[in-house]
């Protein structure tokens, strides 16, 4: 006699509020909704073709994630970046990626360089097509791949925590870049140092890459602040 398998029921599709949450989160993290921009519920609900109930649930979760700020009787805005936010994020990011590079070179520098070069080429192709969203996505994948290749589960967990903020900052910065191909070329010195197995140079290159990005986004923040407070 064979054991009977109990019915498990049908797998339910994702709720509408979850789908709305994904759309809004992506729009914020890709820079489509900019820091400080009001989120008008009636407008967004009409654009998405949904009622305000799932939208409000999505906004509640985004508020808990720190991506939006809701003030009673004043509405909801995308959380504005502060200079301190940027400095903290990029000082931590520099340590995480430098640690990853050391491990990558000690394990299999040639394989890592090969995989990272594929991502760099993908950024370049997206840039040549003028696809900003794909440039952002491939840029993000380059740095996440570096973390994954380090083969360190705790490091990956830490990266996942800061990853959303990094994604937002990178998207804002790339929007200001008049030459999207330069986004790809900025990664070349990092790959070449890894390929050469030169740990000291590779760490220096990744630190410089991240420091340059942090400085540029800080400059962007100051300009935006001046524009909002003339």
Can you offer a commentary on this structure?
By secondary structure, this protein is mainly α. The protein has 2 domains: 16-78, Orthogonal Bundle (Arc Repressor Mutant, subunit A); 83-228, Four Helix Bundle (Hemerythrin (Met), subunit A), CATH 1.20.120. It is 72% helix and 4% strand. It has 9 helices and 3 strands, in the order αβααββαααααα. It has helices at 16-29, 41-48, 52-64, 83-128, 132-149, 153-176, 181-185, 188-195, 199-228, and strands at 38-39, 68-71, 75-78. The protein has a 3-stranded antiparallel β-sheet. A hairpin with a 3-residue loop joins strand 2 (68-71) and strand 3 (75-78). Helix 1 crosses helix 3. 32% of the residues are buried.
Q: Which structural traits does this protein have?
A:
about 230 residues, mainly alpha, Arc Repressor Mutant, subunit A, Four Helix Bundle (Hemerythrin (Met), subunit A), 2 domains, three-stranded antiparallel beta sheet, 9 helices, 3 strands, about 70% helix, elongated
The span between the termini is: 81 Å
- Note the total helix count: 9
Question: Which ranges are low-confidence, i.e. pLDDT below 50, for 5 or more consecutive residues?
Answer: 8-12
Structural class: mainly alpha
Give the strand content: under 5%
Give the strand tally.
3
Summarize the structure.
This protein has 9 helices and 3 strands; from the N terminus they run H-E-H-H-E-E-H-H-H-H-H-H.
């Amino acid at each position: 006699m064979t054991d009977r398998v109990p019915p498990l029921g049908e797998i339910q599709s994702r709720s509408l509020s979850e789908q709305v949450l994904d759309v809004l989160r992506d729009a914020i993290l890709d820079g489509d909704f900019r820091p400080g921009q009001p989120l008008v519920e009636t407008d967004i609900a009409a654009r998405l073709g949904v009622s305000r109930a799932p939208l409000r649930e999505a906004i509640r979760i985004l508020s808990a994630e720190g991506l939006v700020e809701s003030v009673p009787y004043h509405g909801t805005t995308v959380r504005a970046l502060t200079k301190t936010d940027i400095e903290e994020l990029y000082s931590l990011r520099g340590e995480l990626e430098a640690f990853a590079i050391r491990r990558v070179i000690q394990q299999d520098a040639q394989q890592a360089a090969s995989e990272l070069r594929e991502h760099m080429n993908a950024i370049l192709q997206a840039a040549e097509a003028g696809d900003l969203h794909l440039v952002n996505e491939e840029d993000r994948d380059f740095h996440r791949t570096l973390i994954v290749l380090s083969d360190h589960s705790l490091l990956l967990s830490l990266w996942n925590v800061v990853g959303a903020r990094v994604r937002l900052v990178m998207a804002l910065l790339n929007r200001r870049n008049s030459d999207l191909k330069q986004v790809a070329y900025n990664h070349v010195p990092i790959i070449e140092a890894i390929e050469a197995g030169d740990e000291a140079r590779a760490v220096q290159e990744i630190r410089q890459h991240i420091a340059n990005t942090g400085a540029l986004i800080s400059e962007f923040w100051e300009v935006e602040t001046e524009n909002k407070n003339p």
